[in-house]
Write a structure and sequence with these properties.
Length: about 45
């Protein structure tokens, strides 16, 4: 999970449930899995 910066300097960062890097990574893995199953013919670009 991503950590969002706090509103003041004395508090800790708050954990937030939306992490764009994680979503992107999971989408790339899902595409690769579909390719491995033979659902698509072209190899997905996962970078």
């Amino acid at each position: 999970m991503a950590v969002k910066t706090p509103l003041n300097s004395f508090a800790r960062g708050r954990k937030v449930g939306h992490d764009s890097a994680k979503k992107k990574r999971q989408a790339a893995v899902a595409q690769l899995q579909q390719w491995a199953k033979g659902k698509t013919t072209e190899i997905p670009n996962t970078k």
